[in-house]
Write a structure and sequence with these properties.
Strand content: 5-15%
Radius of gyration: 20 Å
Structural class: alpha+beta
CATH class of the largest domain: Alpha Beta
Number of domains: 2
Number of helices: 8
Strand order of the largest sheet: 6-7-9-8
CATH architecture of the largest domain: Alpha-Beta Complex
Helix content: 40-55%
CATH topology of the largest domain: Aspartate Aminotransferase, domain 1
Oligomer: single chain
Distance between the termini: 42 Å
Length: 235
Amino acid sequence: MDGVLSTADYLGAKIKIKSEQDTTGTSFVIAGLGLNNQVITETITGSNSGVVTTSNIFKTVTSINSSGTSNGNIKIGTEAADGDWDTIIDANSINADTAYTNMVVSNARILAETLISRGVSIVSGGTDTHVVLVDLRPKGLTGNVTELSLEHAGITCNKNGIPFDPQPPTVTSGVRLGTPAGTTRGFGNDEFVKIGHLIGDVLDGLAQNAEDNKAVEARVREEVRALCRAFPIYQ
């Protein structure tokens, strides 16, 4: 069982270990793992986490990981990640997690389709995952400006490079969006259609007046607040 495992592999491995005592001496390390800039994370709500099953592979992983380690010393992060896994693999929640995962992908596809209808491009033409990578060039916008304006409007995203990006990494021609957090909150397809149009409104405002998008940002921020109030985190 030594090696780097995918989410599905680890899920099966931990179910087995929870059901019978592990006598192999294999240890499991929850980690925010970066391998060749590919991060095993973000597909599960909660603390960022990947997983390495370790013996000899651990030295290989730590030697190629840019930080030299496969996790920091923040123990609460490790505990939170392990708690995420325990929640996911509980016998009563496996079916619910499957439904949740399907909804994450469905919401991402709806978000991508809505943004395409608003005049931007999506890298690869769509998505089969939780991530939507938006190419802003059809609007004449850059990622750094868009990221900041969306933040002012109450929508969090990250500037992100696109394939063969003509802009430097500090600027970028794209932004990266994701659906897990909203899906966890209870947003479905209808809500992500609305979110897509709210993002489109901010982009259109920027395209028309990149120097002052405050009016659009304020209006969208109020709509974001109304949407979040309809799906409270704590009740």
